[in-house]
């Protein structure tokens, strides 16, 4: 190179003797040598580079080439079934065709969804919902467009796939709940995993199109057991995603079934029997502690929730003041009212009170220096009459005498204010008020009127229907029965005798008289000669007398109707509780208990009673839900607010509101409550939900 | 000199031709695999074209020096007119185009310009009086001869081909003995202008390709896709490759253009490093032979003509291989004798034919004779 330079340094303009044919030839030779050498150098560089790629980085690129070529798709496992005690499915799987979209692979999301909508004949609300979901999605999680497609639609879609990037049609299984809304709160529903759930559990299965996890209720609780093991399919694919051949397929392993103690037909019957009311029915088996029925109505349709909660559907449920999203069995808290009276009597017996000891009810009774009203004037009252006539004065007197601490201890011992070891996502404790509790919570001393209120199940007392059912079972059997929800858990508590037989039979007799004797629930008699139901009515006041008489007026202010029961009264087989929110009194509750028990002992008779009622109501619960949805959608379909993005938000909100609702009756606990006539029949029929807002 | 029939077969440059035949045959095998194990549509037409263009090359090889010199400038003018015609037809037809449909074949005039610019410059410099080699005449006229076609091709726009034309022309100018510092100055100027050209001269997609070269993984599904997949193909081949017809990258269409620009990657995946070394070695043999022909020739015209042809072939090879191995941006330049495509085969066979022609002239010229600038 130096030589080259020196040859040229002789001046640009110079045409001197240095430049001639032979120097040019020399220059040519030198320069071509240099260029040739550079070319050779590049050749060596290329060879070395190739050696580097092919040898040093061979491992890395071999892997990348394999991951290009082989596509591993997970086959979502079929979810385990949820069975009732007799093996009938409460949640099963249905083979169907479905379509998902994967937002991050969509080229033009709007256009793709529009053409999908046209192809699958989706309605506009649904299309809008999908668009919103896609817009909010973070990309990797698939979003369900539709399931339950027929083969024609599926085939039509499959043909157009090359033009629709990010659309995943597949054959799969979807969750199916045969009894629909009857089991909504109990079983819950399934849905695609949310981003948060995926962050928590980085299982690739969670973002596999078509895979859903339990979102609420037992579906969520038993998620791991129900999940199963995904299958896998290794396929060779082209760059455009066309499958060349299957390399290997491993079948999925279905999740394990979960067998519940629930009696499917009973659950369905009870849910339907609640009718237009808002409430819950819990039935337990007195010989095993099995929860046979945990019905809470009105409810949502888990089949429809599992396809994604539509905004119209969500708005309709949200606006319903009977809170169809709340599981009232576990999260409804109500003052128990007079239903706690037999239990209080048991506390008195334990404290040595003679059941034959009488007091005089003069339309009320003086406690300390103040006169407290009874709902009626009962004259001379012993324990039995106090129960079947639900005389308040008796309880004012004896609660004051033994001290409410003792009574509260009994209440807690029998399950009130307690959580039970059940596989449920959450349950509310409620409140059994004691002087200590009141001091902690409000910083004020326990007053005589607190004892008076609490002695008849009012004031700060708050219980859930499940607690009332357990209390009823423990009273009826005299054993410390623990409720159980799955067949694989052991019945517990039967070896623990709580009360002597004579006390148990005294209470049983008194509670039988409530229904079969001169008691407050005369219309609650079972239509059988040989089977008698025992029970206790309760009417829980939620607002002061000046606001509402509890039977008419705004639904929100009406009294709760409660009833605890067991049957047959002399050898209890089943026990339970019925709570009707704002039913206007216990008259709304015990006919339901009567029909449910009738169904237990003679299904045919129970069904006949229900059929007649449903004719008045306009169909079964599910039919009415569907009708309401159709009406609502046509009326309000375009103006609804969409549901929260996360399902968790929905139920957090519902739970917060449930706590708020439970505090309603606390507002009137600051003074003595004027007791309501207990055997009051249901007031006017419950308001039509549409007009309720 | 006027013999149409070539010299006895023994006198052909077999040292170059046999490796070339092997390479074309190997190319056909790779194309057979790229077509999914079929002679159609690539391999058979590849071989047919090679046969046709080999005949053309032998005809070129037999051309007498005087005729070549006589035809050179007219040929340059004709190709220039064709380039302008392409531009006009493109404008009229609305949208750029690079080829002319002649009815019986599709002609890409810019391809023809690559060898033609080399011959034209070789002729110009050989006619230029020796003393003027450091004057403006040796710069401005050839500069214009290069700039006009390069400009036209850039308008198409075809960056790769215009670079190839400029490279061929530049090498001829360098070898013609122009003062080196002009090149140094031009290089410095180019380096200074590069950022300006990059930001204002290049199309957005071209900018992206250049950036991608430095970091292909930054955008593996976009502009970096080609380079990434090509490297995967080459790297996954290992030493002996995945075996004939077993390349998943090409067969499953992960590799873009497996039969044209990325044919080397297709080959390397199935034949591994061994195949790659073979291809590079054959190219080395061909180029070395070309240089030998250039150095052996005794007159300036042949010198420059032969070396310009070598440079043109080299440019194809180097840019293509640098590209598939991730050292150069993705420009549409095929690999000589292996890629499927008529135009590149035509150009390269013209180059080979011209080299064979010079080789024949060398044989016929008295050894050791004094080169004459007048030929």
TrEMBL record, chain A:
Entry annotated with the keyword Ribonucleoprotein: no
MF annotations from Gene Ontology: serine-type D-Ala-D-Ala carboxypeptidase activity
Keyword annotations from UniProtKB, A to Z: Carboxypeptidase, Cell inner membrane, Cell membrane, Hydrolase, Membrane, Protease, Transmembrane, Transmembrane helix
Stretches the record annotates as Disordered: 663-693
Transmembrane stretches, start-end: 33-55
Organism in which the protein naturally occurs: Erythrobacter ani
Domain Penicillin-binding protein dimerisation: 75-246
Keyword Hydrolase: yes
Highest rank taxon of the organism: Bacteria
Pfam family name, one: PBP_dimer
Protein name stated in the entry: Penicillin-binding protein 2
E.C. numbers: 3.4.16.4
InterPro entries with a match to the protein in the record: Beta-lactam/transpept, PBP_dimer, PCN-bd_Tpept, Penicillin-binding_protein_2
Broadest EC class assigned to this enzyme: hydrolase
Domain Penicillin-binding protein transpeptidase: 279-597
Compositional bias per record (Pro residues), positions renumbered to this chain: 684-693
TrEMBL record, chain B:
Keyword field contains Cell inner membrane: yes
Domain of life, per lineage: Bacteria
EC numbers, comma separated: 2.4.99.28
Keyword Cell wall biogenesis/degradation included in the entry's annotation: yes
Residues spanning the membrane: 12-34, 46-63, 70-92, 112-132, 139-155, 161-178, 183-202, 271-291, 303-331, 337-358
Membrane topology: Multi-pass membrane protein
Keywords: Cell inner membrane, Cell membrane, Cell shape, Cell wall biogenesis/degradation, Glycosyltransferase, Membrane, Peptidoglycan synthesis, Transferase, Transmembrane, Transmembrane helix
Location, primary (coarse class): membrane
InterPro entries: FtsW/RodA, RodA/MrdB
Catalytic activity entry: [GlcNAc-(1->4)-Mur2Ac(oyl-L-Ala-gamma-D-Glu-L-Lys-D-Ala-D-Ala)](n)-di-trans,octa-cis-undecaprenyl diphosphate + beta-D-GlcNAc-(1->4)-Mur2Ac(oyl-L-Ala-gamma-D-Glu-L-Lys-D-Ala-D-Ala)-di-trans,octa-cis-undecaprenyl diphosphate = [GlcNAc-(1->4)-Mur2Ac(oyl-L-Ala-gamma-D-Glu-L-Lys-D-Ala-D-Ala)](n+1)-di-trans,octa-cis-undecaprenyl diphosphate + di-trans,octa-cis-undecaprenyl diphosphate + H(+)
Subcellular locations according to the entry: Cell inner membrane; Membrane
Signal peptide, first to last residue: none
Primary role: Peptidoglycan polymerase that is essential for cell wall elongation.
Cited PANTHER family: CELL CYCLE PROTEIN (PTHR30474), PEPTIDOGLYCAN GLYCOSYLTRANSFERASE MRDB (PTHR30474:SF1)
Protein name per its UniProtKB record: Peptidoglycan glycosyltransferase MrdB
Taxonomy of the source species: Bacteria, Pseudomonadati, Pseudomonadota, Alphaproteobacteria, Sphingomonadales
Gene designation per UniProt: rodA
